[in-house]
Amino acid sequence: MPRRRNARDRDLPRYLYIRKGNFYVVHPVTQVWYALKTKDRDLALKRYNSVMQGWGLTEIDHTFKVIEGRGRTLRVLLEECVINIDLMKTSNNLRPLADNTRILYLGCARALLSLENPVLDKALPVTTTDIRQILSPWMETSGRRNNIRSLLVRILDNEVDAGRLDTNPAREVRRMPAAVRQTYLTDEHFWLIHDALPSEVHRDIMMLMYLLSQRPVDIFKLTYEDAVNALKSPLLIDGEMCYTLKFTQQKTRTSMAIDFHEADQIAAIFQRGIERYKKFKPSHKELFFHLELRRPIVDNMFGKAFRAAVRKYNLPAYQVRDLRAKGLTDEELKTGNSANRVNKGGHKNKAVSDNYVKIKPPVRSRNNLSINRNKQQGGQMA
Fold first, then answer.
1. pLDDT score for 191
2. Is there a contact between 26 and 89 (Cβ–Cβ < 8 Å)?
3. What is the DSSP letter of 223?
4. How far apart are the first and last CA of the chain?
5. Are the CB atoms for 155 and 83 separated by under 8 Å?
6. Residue 62: count of CB within 10 angstroms of its CB
7. Helix/strand/coil (H/E/C) assignment for every residue in 275-301
8. What is the pLDDT, as a whole number, of residue 382?
9. In the prediction, which pLDDT does 133 show?
10. For residues 341 and 358, what is the distance between their CA atoms, to the nearest angstrom?
11. What is the DSSP letter of 73?
12. Which of 289, 290, 234 is CA-nearest to residue 263?
């Protein structure tokens, strides 16, 4: 799928693009990219004219596709999408789509094709109202609606880039904001899930996700060097040894620095992890959390164990991301200071951080998670 014009190739003729210094020409019908095998602009223009003449086109009659495109419909475009799903490229470069994205788009295309909507059989161009009508069956499911909208934007962008349409009406339809998840992982359920995890490594990861209140990917991407540096050069503050963990959030690339005390569980988790690391000599030496088989713990491995623990006790449908929300919620309940919560979560402002607070703090807040717990009281956090 051709990319949209950028600053480097806006002054080039239609169907001629430059990527990483190389010139390419795109067939106006099949949308296949052909390399002109040169980085010289003048030579690329000569070869471009030769190729276009070979296709029976000249620069003057490039607009013929606009007239021809009037016979095309959204149903035809979706059928072509299903057939050529493996050939679809990302919107910002020439790489193929990720496997999960192809599966997602394929499901969206088939869902649209199953509709008996006359708009799908309407000749292009379509209007913004038509796009909204197509999306109307998914008004209650924001995620699915946004995915279908993204597919329509992609296939109609292809028509615009090929000259068959002047504008893309799907881009005028706004994405539906996702509903904020309001699930709060209670203390009792937290310990039930924690104790049901299969290994000490899994339990340490779960506890660290809660205590640091970070995204799962940030915990999995912690390195051995991060843990060692965190336990180096402690500072004596108010009679306690204080450490600092420094890392970069994977999503926002925000540099984080979280302080913790020697008696905190975070220090104990890092010390146990360093001992395991030296004992097992893992194959992926840059990552911190590994199993006894020298394999690194990754998102899907931990998520599978977490969901199995939830099903074991027939608990509500908790998700791994609820650990981050619980940590930030308990931070608000403990301190009542929203600034601490914003800094701990690495958020840009309080409004974003407020989405993670699942329980509004009372006049006096309750206690937080500690290393000592009283299992005789139904697993309540001490």
1. 95
2. no
3. B
4. 57
5. no
6. 16
7. HHHHHHCCCCCCECCECCCCCECCHHH
8. 40
9. 92
10. 13
11. B
12. 234
**Pairwise CA distance, residues 203 & 191, whole Å:** 10
Are the beta carbons of 299 and 220 closer than 8 angstroms? Answer: yes
Predicted confidence at residue 204, as pLDDT, reads 92
Provide the 10 A C-beta neighbour count for residue 159: 21
Q: Decide: helix, strand or coil at residue 123.
A: strand
Per-residue pLDDT, 115: 87
> Burial, 178: exposed, middle or buried (Cβ in 10 Å; 0-12, 13-18, 19+)?
exposed
Phi/psi of residue 31, each to 5°?
Answer: 65, 20
CB of 133 closer than 8 Å to CB of 119: yes
Please give the C-alpha separations between residue 75 and each of 80, 123, 126, 175, 363, in angstroms, as whole numbers: 9, 10, 12, 22, 58
pLDDT of residue 57: 60
Given a cut of 50, the residues of the chain with pLDDT beneath it are: 1-2, 59-70, 364-372, 374-380, 382
pLDDT reported for residue 134: 92
How far apart (Å, rounded) are the C-alpha atoms in residues 228 and 283? 18
3-state secondary structure of 127: coil
User: Does pTM top 0.85 for this prediction?
Assistant: no
List the structure tokens of 165.
């349409």
Model pLDDT, residue 282: 66
Determine the length of the chain.
382
Structure confidence at residue 149 (pLDDT): 93
